[in-house]
User: Fold this.
Amino acid sequence: MKYVSSYILSSSATNKQPLWYSFKICSITLLFSTFIACSKLQPEPTDTEFSRLQERANAVEIIRDNYGVPHIYAKTDADAVFGLLYAQAEDDFKRIERNYVWAMGRLAEIEGEEALYSDLRVRLYMTLDQAKIEYQKAPQWLKDLCIAFADGLNFYLKTHPHIKPKLITQFEPWMPMFFFEGSIGGDIEKIPLDGIKAFYGSAQNIPLQASIDSMSEPKGSNGFAISGKLTESGNAMLLINPHTSFYFRGEVHVVSEEGLNAYGAVTWGQFFIYQGFNEHNGWMHTSTYADFKDEFIEDIFTKNGQLYYKYGNESRKVEESTVTLKYRDGNVLKNKEFSMYHTHHGPITHMIDNKWVATKINWEPAKALEQSYIRTKTRNHKEFHKMMDIRTNSSNNTVYADSQGNIAYYHGNFMPRRNAGFNFSKPVDGSNPKTDWQGLHELDEMITLLNPDNGWLQNCNSTPFNAALEFSPKSNDYPTYMAPDAENYRGIHAVSVLAGQDNFTLDKLIALSYDPFLPAFAELIPSLIGAFDKSKNKDKKTSDAIEVLRKWDFKVSEDSVAMSLAHFYGMHYLNKGNTPEGLKFVEKIRYFSNDTTEKERLKFFSEVLIELENDFGKWNIPWGEVNRFQRLNGSIASSFDDTQPSVAVNMASGRWGALAAYGSRRFEGTKKLYGYRGNSFIAVVEFGKKVKAKSLLAGGQSGDPLSPHFNDQIVNYVNTEFKDVAYYREDVEKRATERYTPGDH
Assistant:
């Protein structure tokens, strides 16, 4: 237990944890020490498979730094992947398993019948047998990495018999074919489950468009790239700022003697750095709204007991197959068989006006895995551009910077070529061959940007046509389906903070990415104040609250009462206010600000004041007393408790334009708001003769409450105190708290 005890000493000295936190860590450390001492972590089986895995483990070294970040060193890429997956399993095996249970379509075996349609959605695009075929077709170098993936996880399970998987007791090399991109759900989650359930569950129609939930924290990310002509050092810089659910990715560093030396965020269970950097360049992905999927309304009919669909002058057979899915019912596993239907457009996913609809997306798992891994080893923009030409990273935009001074932006990556005579933002007639995809757009036909004259570029899940002021791509140069993305308040905010800036340092880049101004409230709150000023009934409570807002500068801070008032007012309006159909979020806020009645605004504000008094005993409560960070356990579905310790957070929701997004809400039994999504892994990187970087992780590296790295970055997180990244071996050695080969503990 040298690692744990030595870390506790350094943690209390350097990381400035609050007293309650230190007591908690000391207690859990004693428990952890006792647990490890009493557990036989590494069995000594004599089977040849274990001997093979042990020999492989001996070729890997893992060094943990003082924040628990694993630095994995090996001679080959495959052995490095083995160590990477082993280290990930040490930190959060349950999330690895959950990701693969979900990705393979086996969630109902744990969660019960309600999850069957999530599983069915997966199998409509690829069955287990098809995944095995895709694996066999992959190039040998990729198969070697997939084998290493399975070996690393299986060796972890063999050497940690106290870990009891919920479902997957043996990982297989073909499993990554189901989980090949790294983004939040990837392409398949853009296919609504309500359609799958309605069609395959009860043969019912669903509406054309699923409604957007304005109450949920927006999914997305920020990426900034800064040219060397605007930096103090003359080197290009990159902001890596994903806004995922907390603990969705860990922070890792993986190195081989075959050219791999990547650092950054890894989605649990994957063998490539998803958002990160190497010594030469860095890449940040933001979720795209580029239109890469289409729905085809099929003309189905029956002939001689066989289903057909019309396609031009042809009658084509509908491909029919069956799949048997398991689901848990209490302590019993039951089976349910589904018939699945496919046309050449793809699987039937739902029904509109009693017509079957097939949904076509990108589905080339081996090719997508190739692209995801090759990205981490590129050394310059030429190589990076060549990697992007694989064109399978369909759900992401990419912000790029490198040591040669280049900055670049790619809007989407997989883009079907369509007939301009049809509106592909809506379902199209699948019986008309002219609606078929006409291949893919070449990379250079897509929306890209390289070294704009203004010296910076940004994307915040927003339109690419404002990525670099007047040097942005021009919408008239591209088909509408390439960029239907709306502007959002984070994009508006990003442009305002970057414009006119120079002499960037890493610290200045951090400061700008945490700028506290909230542009949505700069539009919403003045209209409320104006409504009050025109009203005749001015009671003291409302007058006092309006005066607080009148003096506000629209910046979030821990002690701001105005921030509390504005947040709850905005959320109440989103929940209760009515808007015309089809408005984007910015349009909704502007509608509430300009096109609603003054009476309605004051009514909603009065209801908010009453709500605050009922929940907190007063309306004038500072934001930090309401907006909290708490991590009580390692469960995937976090629980929260107002009676347990938590930390004030001076950040706000990305929906209001907060660049440093902190999505918080009430949970069952709570009055306070607790963070669950937003700034998760954050890094700023400078590319010069030597790469420099600083990073921060929500909570900590480990998902184990007994680990000292479960909560050791909370104070850093809320105080915006980034750690220096240990990238070069000499720096890793200086900060090493433990070194071992897989299986040693």
In short: The first strand starts at residue 60 and ends at 65. The first helix runs from residue 2 to 14.
